[in-house]
Design brief:
Layout (H helix, E strand, L loop, with lengths): L2 H6 L4 E3 L2 E3 L3 E3 L8 H9 L4 E3 L3 E2 H5 L3 H6 L8 E7 L3 H14 L4 E6 L4 H4 L11 H12 L6 E5 L10 H11 L3 E4 L14 H10 L4 E4 L5 H11 L3 E4 L8 H15 L2 H18 L6 H5 L13 H9 L4 H13 L1
Parallel strand pairs: 3-11, 4-6, 5-6, 6-7, 7-8, 8-9, 9-10, 10-11
Antiparallel strand pairs: 1-2
Helix pairs in contact: 5-7, 7-8, 8-9, 12-15
The structure holds flavin mononucleotide (FMN).
The site of flavin mononucleotide has 21 residues, from loops.
């Protein structure tokens, strides 16, 4: 297992100006991603949850049930609302209503739903037929949006043509902040397996963050997806049904890895020393006291004794700060 690739993602992925850590979220799932499920996943350290897809038209018509699907509980972590629709102006209006009414972190456009009821109105995965229309929709949704606008897509309409790259680039150019790819075609629905190779191909080209999705059922699958595709984050749907522990396992996995990184220790140690300087009454020679104890922050490092000796040799506050900053930059 190549640990380096996973640690590249240690800090989480960026959604607008929010850092999502660990780099994982729950998937939108009609009939499942309600408030109760989202609160439960949050308790198991899932940092971000997507609502099930809701109709832009129904939101505008003030359909109570639709608004209930996306209302946010105090107890849930960050919320990402997913909309479906095909009309650029309608979607723009829905974005503006939702961002005004609910404390959300982002709004997603559904380009993945394969069901007929949605496709017949040129929405969901059917929109992948027309990159021009997708472009127009994203331009319209981002116009006046105060939260990031994102897209969740499939690999294309049928198995013959991989349209992922064309659509993803159109979305990026139109102003989307992040893309999630479930690499199965519309025709495939949920059969066969997700083609993670497509995630890798997109990651090589896109500049905005890319979330991989599809067939992650265990911590090992999660690690494998990150390693084999270099995606910025992972979205989990069926793997979390009845199994919220998967988010906790991922969180624990990351915390354990962070725990053994000298860089991470140094960040906390520096923060601690800066707090000492802020609150201490004897600031001038604070290093004299702190240099005797600050090594405790590094006690899980493999080269602990070397670090301890190094820090104890600091001869001023500035030098202690310089040493800690040096560890962070190493
Ligand atoms: C019952 C069910 C409902 C779903 N509802 C949505 C939805 O509302 N919006 C969406 O973008 N994808 C929806 N999906 C697709 C999932 O978000 C996800 O892309 C897919 O299940 C693959 O991920 P997984 O292997 O982690 O489950 C749904 C999937 C299932 C099985």
């Amino acid at each position: 297992m190549n640990k380096k690739k996973v640690s590249k993602n240690m800090d989480g992925f960026v959604l607008g100006d929010i850092k999502i850590f660990p780099p994982v979220c729950s998937a939108p799932m009609a009939g499942y991603s309600n408030q109760a499920t989202r609160v439960l996943y949050s308790k198991f350290s899932c940092p971000l949850n997507v609502t099930e897809m809701v109709s832009a038209k129904a939101l505008i018509k003030k359909n109570k049930r639709t608004w209930d699907y996306i209302s946010k509980s105090e107890q849930e972590s960050l919320l990402w609302v997913q909309l479906f629709g095909g009309d650029p102006l309608e979607l723009q209006e829905a974005v503006q209503l939702v961002q005004k009414e609910i404390n959300i972190s982002a709004i997603d456009l559904n380009l993945g739903c394969p069901v007929k009821k949605i496709s017949k109105n040129l929405a969901g995965a059917q929109l992948m037929k027309s990159p021009e229309q997708v472009y127009k929709i994203i331009v319209s949704m981002t116009d006046g949006a105060s939260v990031p606008i994102t897209v969740k897509m499939r690999s294309g309409i049928d198995n013959e043509k991989n349209q992922a790259l064309e659509i993803a680039l159109a979305c990026e150019e139109a102003g989307a902040s992040l893309i999630t790819i479930h690499p199965r075609s519309k025709e495939q629905k949920f059969t066969g397996s997700a083609n993670w190779e497509i995630i890798k191909q997109l990651k090589e080209v896109l500049t905005i963050p890319l979330i991989g999705n599809g067939d992650v059922f265990t911590l090992r699958d999660y690690i494998e997806m990150v390693e084999s595709t270099s995606c910025d984050g992972v979205m989990i749907g069926r793997g979390a049904l009845g199994n919220p522990w998967i988010f906790q396992e991922i969180y624990n996995y990351h915390m354990k890895s962070v725990k053994f990184e000298k860089k991470a220790f140094a960040k906390i140690a520096l923060e601690y020393f800066e707090l000492e300087l802020r609150y201490s009454k004897y600031v001038k020679n604070e290093y004299l006291r702190v240099r005797k104890s600050i090594h405790h922050y590094f006690k899980n490092s493999s080269n602990y004794f070397e670090i301890k000796e190094n820090l104890q040799s600091a001869s001023s506050n500035d030098e202690l700060i310089k040493k800690l900053k040096g560890f962070i930059l190493e």
